[in-house]
TrEMBL record:
The chain crosses the membrane at residues 64-85, 97-119, 179-207, 228-252, 272-291, 303-322, 328-348, 360-384, 390-410. PANTHER family: INTEGRAL MEMBRANE EFFLUX PROTEIN-RELATED, STAPHYLOFERRIN A TRANSPORTER. This is MFS transporter. It is found in: Cell membrane. InterPro entries: Bacilysin_exporter_BacE_put, MFS_trans_sf, TM_effector. It is a multi-pass membrane protein. The lineage of its organism: Bacteria, Bacillati, Actinomycetota, Actinomycetes, Catenulisporales.
């Protein structure tokens, strides 16, 4: 595990802290990318909120809600590793344009079906599968493309700021989505999300290709997927974060299933209350992400600490007696969740070989999203068999178990004499 030298800490000027926190934004291509993505992600979170509420409206079933989430993430489980192989082979900028355009079309179709009042549950399921197929290839491509925009020195900061952007959109998107659902209907959220993809595609086309730093494309060869799996298993700073995220992703990151039912049945809230509690988590994630970006910590120990904080805060939110207190604790849930993701993602990217980075990110996404086809219905079943609080609580327990398991695995690796950390591109992990 990583170690930190103790010593006197000097006070730093606020301007220095700001420069370090936002250092990757000095790269013009990354600024353009962040602008387009920030608009698109607000639309994405609006669609996520609207889709959850649409499924509840159509079926009144937490199990059905878990099924839709599972169908949307099942392709990531099945095809995500191959998506990493494609990302290592492809021109990532051009592939991103194609994939982002396809996501806009999916949102447009869902929006038109909903606005005209003809949407059926099976159609939501089919479009969720289509979006999941796109995500199976887009996730690894998008995240490995960040390295090509900013270079290795700014990679850690860029990954964290990207997480901040995602969660800032989480703070804004659900709140706007909840209001739009109440005022103009669910379908408008899908149509606005479709329009938001124009911004991200335009940002990709505006980039200066001469300033990109593409990794050498991996030539086609047999066994590249197996090669990536062997490499991940043999590298502790990749294998241990993947194992931790596998468990946490399975049970903790099922907020699309747990939160709507938690708000509706525990506190008898509507779409606006759902937007408020989701936004509270997003605000906490923004604060936590900026803190993580300024500190620049990566490695196994910080990831374990974030997992403990994630678990404790989820348990607190689950058993808060009133809605206002639950929202307040969700700020801490957001803080810890984005720290856990950013630290784990950065550790894997900085440790992995450049020609294998797409495959390693794909495995990370499989552990994060690909476990949802199992975890989503499982959490929905837990809620159906007990109560909505248990849906959040089981996620909190999984975080604590992951932290303990990661600690034991790291100790076991160290006991065998194998290094639990490696010199990464951006410095020691």
């Amino acid at each position: 595990m990583s170690t930190v030298n103790a010593g006197p800490v000097k006070a730093q000027e606020p301007s220095t802290v700001r420069q370090r926190t936002f250092s990757s934004l000095k790269v013009p291509n990354y600024r353009i990318y962040m602008t387009g993505q920030s608009i698109s992600l607000i639309g994405t979170w609006m669609q996520t909120t609207a889709q959850s509420w649409l499924v509840l409206t159509l079926t009144h079933s937490s199990t059905a809600l878990g099924l839709v989430v599972a169908l949307q993430t099942l392709p990531v489980l099945l095809f995500g590793p191959y998506g990493g192989v494609v990302a290592d082979r492809a021109d990532k900028q051009r592939l991103m344009v194609i994939l982002q355009s396809a996501m806009g079309v999916q949102a447009l179709v869902l929006g038109l079906l909903t606005v005209f009042g003809s949407v059926k549950f099976w159609e939501v399921c089919a479009l969720a599968v289509a979006l999941g197929m796109n995500n199976a290839f887009e996730n690894a491509t998008r995240q490995s493309f960040v390295r090509e925009m900013v270079g290795r020195d700014e990679l850690r900061n860029a990954i964290t700021l990207n997480s901040v952007m995602v969660n800032a959109a989480r703070a804004v998107g659900p709140a706007v989505g909840g209001i739009l659902i109440a005022v103009v209907g669910i379908g408008i959220c899908f149509l606005l999300n479709a329009a938001s993809f124009v911004a991200v595609v335009a940002s990709l086309l505006r980039m200066d290709r001469s300033q990109l730093q593409p990794s050498p494309p991996t030539p086609r060869a047999r066994g590249q997927l197996r090669e990536g799996l062997r490499y991940a298993a043999a590298t502790p700073t990749i294998a241990i974060p993947l194992a931790m995220m596998g468990l946490v992703g399975l049970l903790a990151y099922e907020f699309q299933v747990s939160l709507p039912v938690f708000v509706e049945r525990t506190f008898h809230g509507g779409s606006v209350a759902f937007g408020v509690i989701t936004s509270a988590m997003g605000i906490g994630a923004v604060i936590g992400g900026l803190f993580t970006a300024a500190r620049g910590r990566t490695g196994l120990r910080p990831m374990m600490i974030a997992a403990v904080g994630f678990g404790v805060s989820m348990l607190g939110a689950a058993y808060a007696p009133v809605f206002a207190l639950s929202c307040a604790v969700m700020l801490l849930v957001g803080w810890a969740s984005v720290s856990f993701i950013a630290i784990g993602n950065s550790t894997i990217q900085l440790t992995s070989d450049p020609e294998k980075r797409g495959r390693m990110i794909a495995l990370w996404q499989v552990a994060f999203q690909g476990t949802t086809p199992i975890g989503g219905p499982l959490v929905g079943w837990v809620i159906a068999m007990s109560d909505p609080r248990s849906g959040l609580a089981v996620g909190g327990v999984s975080c604590l178990v992951a932290a303990a398991g990661g600690f034991m695995l790291a100790r076991r690796v160290s006991g065998r004499g194998a290094p639990a950390s490696a010199e990464a591109e951006g410095g020691p992990v």
